[in-house]
Amino acid sequence: ALGSVEIFLSRHCPLWYGYGSRLKFLERFAYVNTIVYPFTSIPLVVYCTLPAICLLTGKFMIPTISNFASLWFLSLFLSIFATGILEMRWSGVGIEEWWR
């Protein structure tokens, strides 16, 4: 991961190295995963430490949800479910084929 960070900070970073004629856009885009990979650990560390901090401080990290907000969430979930069912019906795929 340290090598990817060093490549990101160097002048040979694929994001801006190929603006001349060295690398084409898709070639630069192919290296984005290699460069961004070490930075994905930051949200993971926050995700792992936030519940422990909330337990130690006694504060709940998720606010209370009102009935109105839960209705919005339920309607969103049902609309996504209905869209999936309709797409299956329109494509002619049965439950057995979908399950396989």
Runs in which pLDDT lies below 50 for 5 or more consecutive residues are none
How many strands? 0
Order of helices and strands: HHHHHHH
As a percent range, the share of helical residues equals over 70%
Cα gyration radius (Å) = 23 Å
Shape: flat
End-to-end distance, in Å?
39 Å
Average pLDDT reading = 82
Largest sheet: none
Please identify the structural class as seen in this structure: mainly alpha
Strand content: under 5%
The tally of helices reads: 7
Short summary:
The chain is mainly α and 100 residues long. Helix content is 70%, strand content 0%.
Feature tags:
100 residues, flat, mainly alpha
What is the strand and helix layout of this fold?
Blueprint: H1 2-9, H2 14-17, H3 25-30, H4 32-36, H5 41-57, H6 67-91, H7 95-99
Characterize the structure shown:
The protein is 70% helix and 0% strand. The chain is mainly α. The mean pLDDT is 82. It contains 7 helices and no strands.
